[in-house]
Design goal:
It is a lipid-anchor; GPI-anchor. The chain has eight helices and 13 strands. It is α/β, with parallel strands linked by helices. It binds zinc ion.
Length: 283
């Protein structure tokens, strides 16, 4: 009898293990949780259309989600990009990481993956004073190691369940058909992929999607809202711009650190809003 009990306890201990194990790796979110929510997500910026897209959402009483790079379609530290990133964030749109230089993360080493995430965290900490809670891997490519690293950096992975194909050669009508299919089939909810870097997306698709989904009674919310979680690990205060805010000497688009570019693997400085005035925190 004791042996049976011991065996049952052993089995329950094994059964209990997976829940512990799930907390050592990131979750991968591909769809919303809440009914009637649509999260329209925009990758590859900040670019020249960021301000327009953010303003279109704001005017419609809707929220957008932007997964940003540091050095892809230009440098996030240029004055114009800094201003538009601050503008979108201040309007309540969600900001997430899309890695520094948009490489295929599955081809990089652990040090290179950490570097790609570190540099984005550093940029958001400097420009906005936030720690991102979500990372969208470029092209949606990820593996177990990437999930583990993201978890160690406090971030879950954000994918999507509908793709407009706006950066893959779809014309405007083809991309609009993706929205129409979702609306006409009365989809329960959706995380939809667009790209901030496409002019037609900014000028045609966004107004079309906003009008269509609003007319069908959907809530146009951020990814975090449709999941019912926080968009950020922490919200502090932005830092003062300095000459160290540069893309010079960082991985160029599509590549990782290494060679003459030292890989950064620590945790970037973060200014908490609760820091006493006159003290420069985390330096
Ligand atoms: Zn991308």
């Amino acid at each position: 009898m004791h042996l049976v009990l011991a065996a049952l306890l052993a089995v329950s201990a094994v059964w209990g293990h997976p829940s512990l194990e799930s907390r050592t790796t990131s979750q991968v979110y591909k769809s919303c949780v809440k009914t009637n929510d649509i999260a329209l997500t925009f990758d590859d910026g900040p670019y020249i259309y960021l301000r327009n897209i953010a303003d279109e959402f704001t005017a419609a009483g809707a929220k957008a989600t932007f997964f940003m790079n540091g050095n892809n379609w230009g440098c996030i530290y240029s004055d114009d990009r800094i201003a538009s990133v601050k503008h979108a964030y201040a309007a309540g749109h969600m900001i997430g990481s899309h890695t520094w230089s948009h490489p295929d993360l599955t081809t990089l080493s652990t040090a290179q993956i950490n570097d790609e995430m570190f540099r984005m965290e550093e940029a958001f900490s400097r420009i906005l004073g936030i720690k991102p809670a979500f990372m969208r891997p470029p092209s949606g490519y990820y593996n177990a190691n990437i999930k583990k690293i993201a978890f160690s950096r406090g971030q879950n992975l954000a994918l999507w369940d509908m793709d407009t194909g706006d950066a893959d050669g779809n014309n405007t009508a083809q991309s609009e058909a993706v929205y129409n299919d979702a609306a006409n089939s009365k989809v329960k909810n959706a995380v939809i992929l667009q790209h901030e870097t496409e002019e037609d997306t900014a000028t045609k698709l966004v107004p079309y999607a906003l009008k269509l989904f609003k007319s069908k009674g959907y809530n146009l919310v951020t990814l975090a809202e449709c999941l019912g979680v926080s968009p950020y690990q922490a919200v502090g205060v932005a830092q003062k711009q300095s000459s160290s805010w540069t893309c010079d000497g960082t991985p160029s688009p599509g590549t990782g650190c290494g060679g003459s570019i030292a890989c950064k693997t620590g945790t970037p400085a973060f200014s908490s809003s609760s820091a006493p005035s006159g003290v420069v925190p985390n330096e």
